[in-house]
Specification:
The complex is a heterodimer of chains A (about 280) and B (about 300). With about 280 residues, chain A is mainly alpha-helical. In chain A, about 70% of the residues lie in helices and about 0% in strands. The two termini of chain A are about 35 Å apart. Chain B has 12 helices and no strands. The two termini of chain B are about 50 Å apart. Classes of the chains: A mainly alpha (about 280), B mainly alpha (about 300). Chain A: Belongs to the binding-protein-dependent transport system permease family.
């Protein structure tokens, strides 16, 4: 934005308020990271002594935390597979083809991002309960796919739109078969988008609470469900370490996506490589 | 056709054949997602709707709705609306200040600021809420800071009440408002502001008469979006709201998990759904109206 020449007071005021707001956004995360290394348990900041005991407790084999980390990983992996399948096919239909009822399908795809998740969760419970599938990792993954697939689809649509169709036409005019074109032209060009879609699907599932809460049984609780229960009922300080791991995982995932996009030569001038997804 | 030199006419035949092929491909590719979402998204929601209209003996009833709209239930609904409105207004104000500052930062700082806005958004809301719980407690960071500064009345009770909930939800909604406002502010043509100033308008007048109307659509979208998203939001109110039921989503969870009151939960779900649709409708109408005004202006 071009602007009027700034006044000094206005400049300082803006800088101060911006810093304060950015602190407001970053502080809760910094606090968790520091507290997780504190030896004295929950809620003391800054800690008087530092240790890694909560991390050790979290990783203890056979414990609640380790079990639910394994379950969450399995569910997130399944979700990733499902949303990639839906993402690639739906994006092909929406970004490339002349699809009858284009607007209706597009609206259907976007709807899960805006509908209150408690309603989706309630509906999925009604769907899976009669089938006796409560607590099944497959059911939770299918539920998570309702939320993750729209994100994967949006990423794949923008990826496919970014690929010059003339490259595919050129290959076709040289006699390449459709399979060859998909394998040798489209797929390599779409790889950064595929990786981003996979990462965001995984993270969406790994962080999701509401659907998992409704579809889980006491024996099968995903990590966020366990974290939520720990925060609501017990005061298990291990939860700081678990939270820190979730933070690290998210930052790692974002870094991976940024790296892949950069290597793939994608220049997104809007800084919008990251889709904004709805809430859990 | 493969490998041979093609005459121009043949190329056209080929592309049109390809076009037909493409619409067939599109149709086939649209099937998985459509089937999936109809089965696991639309059908379950219809299930919620029908459950909310079903009486104990199986017949049709509006009982669950009248129940949801009276007494304690109504007050939960109203406090949900209030918390959502407070959150929307607050995150709009804070988001406006931040987005405005970012729009005027040097690119390096602007990029860094956007990173601090966007990265927390991808970190589990559960974790961020936990961070706030640690910070806002009676002996938390904020209160120890205020106490050491001898703030009157400190320590304040910032947790397990509405203040805490709104602080928490605002921090969750803020990335949305900043992103929306950022987009609109970037689109404002600075020459308009400079021209107005050149004609002698004061800074305040330029802001009020030129800048604000230009970013108004973004303000509407950002505010409504955070309001809608807040309506069904659960994690922060449930963890920071204390014993008192504060929001509808928490009530639904409780009715299902503890009281087995499925019909009532479903009625609340449908009410949330209707409120969301209303919000989205307003958003859509405003967009349509802007488009029409725009067309009228550009055609005349």
């Amino acid at each position: 934005m071009m602007e009027l020449p700034p006044t000094r007071a206005g400049h300082i005021g803006r800088a101060l308020s911006a810093t304060a707001i950015l602190l407001f956004l970053a502080m809760p995360i910094v606090i968790i990271l520091v507290t997780s290394f504190g030896a004295d348990g929950i809620g003391t900041f800054p800690p008087k002594e530092y240790s890694t005991r909560w991390y050790e407790q979290m990783a203890a084999p056979g414990g609640n935390w380790a079990t639910s980390i394994a379950l969450s990983s399995l569910v997130a992996a399944l979700t990733t597979v499902f949303s990639l399948i839906l993402g690639v096919t739906a994006a092909t239909a929406l970004a490339r083809g002349r699809l009858p009822l284009h607007a209706a399908v597009y609206g259907l795809v976007l709807a899960p991002m805006l509908i209150p998740q408690v309603v989706i969760a309630l509906g999925l419970f009604l769907f899976f309960e009669p089938a006796g599938m409560l607590g099944s990792p497959l059911a939770i993954a299918l539920g998570h796919t309702v939320l993750a697939a729209p994100i994967a689809i949006l990423i794949m649509i923008s990826t496919l739109r970014g690929i010059d169709e003339r490259l595919e036409d050129a290959a076709a005019s040289m006699g390449a078969s459709r399979i060859t074109i998909a394998r040798r032209i489209t797929f390599p060009l779409a790889t950064p988008g595929l990786i981003a879609a996979a990462v965001f699907s995984f993270i969406t599932s790994f962080d999701e609470f509401f659907i998992a809460q409704f579809l889980s049984t006491p024996d099968t609780r995903t990590l966020p469900v366990l974290v939520f229960n720990a925060l609501q009922f017990d005061v298990d300080p291990t939860v700081t370490a678990v939270s820190a791991v979730l933070i690290a995982l998210a930052i790692l995932a974002l870094a991976l996506v940024a790296l892949v996009r950069k290597l793939g030569g994608h220049r997104n001038t809007q800084g919008g490589v990251l889709p904004v997804e709805p809430l859990s | 056709m493969a490998g041979t030199a093609v005459a121009p006419g043949k190329v056209r035949v080929k592309t049109s054949a390809m076009r037909g092929h493409r619409s067939r491909i599109a149709l086939v590719n649209a099937v998985p997602v459509t089937v999936f979402l109809l089965l696991l998204f639309v059908y379950p929601i219809i299930g919620v709707l029908s459950l909310s209209l079903k009486g104990d003996s199986g017949g049709f009833t509006l009982h669950w709705y009248t129940d949801a709209l009276s007494g304690v239930n109504l007050s939960v609904l109203l406090s949900t609306l209030r918390i959502s409105a407070e959150t929307a207004v607050l995150s709009l104000l804070v988001g406006f200040v931040l987005a405005h500052a970012i729009a005027r930062m040097r690119p390096v700082f602007a990029a860094l600021a956007m990173l601090i806005v966007v990265v927390p958004h991808f970190i589990s809301a559960l974790v961020r809420t936990y961070g706030w719980i640690i910070m806002l407690g009676e002996h938390g960071l904020i209160n120890s800071l205020l106490t050491s500064l001898h703030a009157p009345g400190a320590p304040y009770s910032l947790l397990y009440n509405e203040t805490g909930v709104v602080i928490g939800t605002t921090s969750v909604m803020l990335p949305y408002t900043v992103l929306v406002l950022q987009g609109v502010m970037r689109g404002v043509d600075g020459r308009l502001l400079a021209a107005a100033a050149g004609f002698g308008a004061s800074r305040m007048t330029v802001f009020r008469r030129i800048y604000l109307p230009l970013v108004a659509p973004g303000i509407g979208t950002a505010g409504l979006l955070s309001f809608i998203l807040c309506l069904g939001y659960y994690i922060t109110p449930a963890l920071m709201g204390g014993d008192k039921q504060t929001v509808v989503a928490a009530l639904i969870d409780q009715q299902v998990m503890k009281q087995d009151q499925w019909n009532s939960a479903a009625a609340f779900g449908v009410i949330l759904l209707l409120l969301t649709f209303a919000g989205l409708g307003v958003l859509g109408l405003a967009k349509l109206r802007r488009k029409k005004t725009h067309e009228r202006r550009s055609s005349s």
